[in-house]
Amino acid sequence: MSQNPSTSQALLSVRGLHKKFGGAVALDGVDFSLAPGEFLTLLGPSGSGKTTTLMSIAGFVDPTAGEILFRGASITRRPPEARGFGMVFQGYALFPHMTVEQNVHFPLSIRGVPKDQASRRVRQALDRVQLGAYARRLPRQLSGGQQQRVALARALVYEPEVLLLDEPLSALDKKLRSDLQWELRQLNKESGASFLYVTHDQEEALSMSDRIAIFNHGRIVQIGTPSELYQRPANLFVAGFLGRSNVLDGRVRQVSDDAVVVESEAGTIPVPRHQGLPRQVGDRVSLVVRPHQLRLAPDGAPGLAATIEAVSYVGNLMNYLLRTVQGTPLYVECVAGGSGPAGLAQGARVSVAFDAASANVLEALPEHS
User: Fold this and answer.
1) Looking at residue 45, what is its pLDDT?
2) Closest CA to 86 of 69, 67, 104
3) Does the pLDDT of residue 339 top 80, yes or no?
4) Which of 87, 93, 209, 343 is most solvent-facing, going by the fewest CB within 10 Å?
5) Are β-strands 12-21 and 162-166 bridged in parallel, bridged antiparallel, or unpaired?
6) What Cα–Cα distance (Å) separates residue 17 from each residue in 165, 195, 198, 249, 327?
C-alpha cells in the first residue's frame, strides 16, 4: 500500500489543500488518500503542516484552497459535528466532573442513542481499552495512560469510520508510550476504523503505521510504507528525518540501465538503480547508507579508513561515532556481542565497509557560493 488508494478505494481524500495564516503559508498543495481500515501517520517537524492538515480534515481550520472528500463527496465546508469523525487530542479533553463511564457515554447521548444500546456500547468500549473496572472513577483518579485510554474509548464508542489523532501519546513517559502504541495498532485492527495519526516521533510512526506521509514546509515530500521510506528515501530530508543516515559526497562517473557508478571517498561503487531521480555523468550526488548497514573490520582491511571518536552502549546495541580521514562523520550500529573486531574503543582505527545494494544515490545539497 505504498501509493495513494485509488478514488474508488479511498475513504477520505485530500486534494490540493492550501492554507495561509496571514502571509504565512502553512499548507502548500497537500494531496493524499486514506483507505478503509488504514493506519496513516502524518510525520514531520514542528510547523511542517501536519496538524493544520488534520485540523482542516476535522473541520476546525478552513482551507484557503483545495478539497476534502469523504466517500467521494466534498466535506470541505461541512461543520465539524456533521463530519462524524472521532478525535483524540494530546490533552485528553475529558470532563473532570464526569465519571469514566459518563465521559464515554457523552458522544452517544448527544446523538440520541437509546439508553440500553448506549450502555452496551459503553461497556464494550471500556472493555476494549481494558478499563471496564474503572467505570465509576473520575479522571483525576486515573493515571495519564488510563486517561488517554478513556479518550480513545470515547472517540470509538460511536463507531466512527475515521479516527483523527493529534499527538495523543506525546505527554506520556517512554515505556507507557511504547505500550499504548501496540494497543492503538490493535484497536485500529479490531475496530476497522481508519486512523489518521499526527506525530513528530519517528520511532512511533515506524512502529505503528501502514503508511507514513512525511511533511516539510507545508508539503508532503514522500509517502509510503515504513520500510519503503526508511530503505529508499526520496531525498536527504527524508533520509535525515526518518532515522539517522550516513552521507558521503560523491560524483556520478558512469550510468547504465542497471547501476549508477559513484566515486566518493569510499571508492568507486556501482550502486544498483532504484526508483528515483535520473542521474547524469558528472552530477554531484550524496551516497546515503544507514548505520546498521555499515560493517566494522580491523584497520587495513578493505574499506574506508576511519577512527572511532565515541562509543555508546544501548541495551543490545553498540553505537559508534567514527571520523574518516577526510573528516566525514559516520555512525555505525552493531548488535552487542555480534561479529566484528573485538575491543573497539575510542581512538581505535578501523575499516568501514558496506554493500553497494544497501546504498541510496540522492540529489546532493546545493553548493554554497
Assistant:
1) 93
2) 104
3) no
4) 343
5) unpaired
6) 19, 19, 17, 36, 43
322-354 core/surface letters (b: 16 or more CB in 10 A; e: else): bebeeebebbbebeeeeeeeeebeeebebbbeb
93 — pLDDT class (breaks 50, 70, 90): confident
- Predicted confidence at residue 3, as pLDDT, reads 54
- The phi, psi pair for 325, rounded to 5°, reads -60, -35
> Which is it for the CA torsion 272, 273, 275, 281, positive or negative?
positive
Residue at 181: amino acid letter: Q
Q: Measured between alpha carbons, how far is residue 266 from residues 29, 113, 198, 250 in Å?
A: 39, 67, 38, 9
8 A C-beta contact, residue 264 and residue 287: yes
Give yes or no for a contact between 360 and 232, defined as CB atoms under 8 angstroms apart. yes
Residue in 257, 246, 258, 233 with CA at minimum distance from that of residue 322: 246
pLDDT of residue 184: 87
For the beta carbon of residue 256, count every other beta carbon within 10 angstroms. Answer: 9
Cell reading at 303: 574499506
Instruction: Report whether 246 contacts 290 (CB < 8 A).
Output: yes
Strand partners, 66: none
| pTM for the whole structure | 0.89
3-state SS string for the chain: CCCCCCCCCCCEEEEEEEEEECCEEEEEEEEEEECCCCEEEEECCCCCCHHHHHHHHHCCCCCCEEEEEECCEECCCCCHHHCCCEEECCCCCCCCCCCHHHHHHHHHHHCCCCHHHHHHHHHHHHHHCCCHHHCCCCHHHCCHHHHHHHHHHHHHCCCCCEEEEECCCCCCCHHHHHHHHHHHHHHHHHHCCEEEEEECCHHHHHHHCCEEEEEECCEEEEEECHHHHHHCCCCHHHHHHCCCCEEEEEEEEEECCCEEEEEECCEEEEEECCCCCCCCCCCEEEEEECHHHCEEEECCCCCEEEEEEEEEEECCEEEEEEEECCCCEEEEEEECCCCCCCCCCCCCEEEEECCHHHCEEEECCCCCC
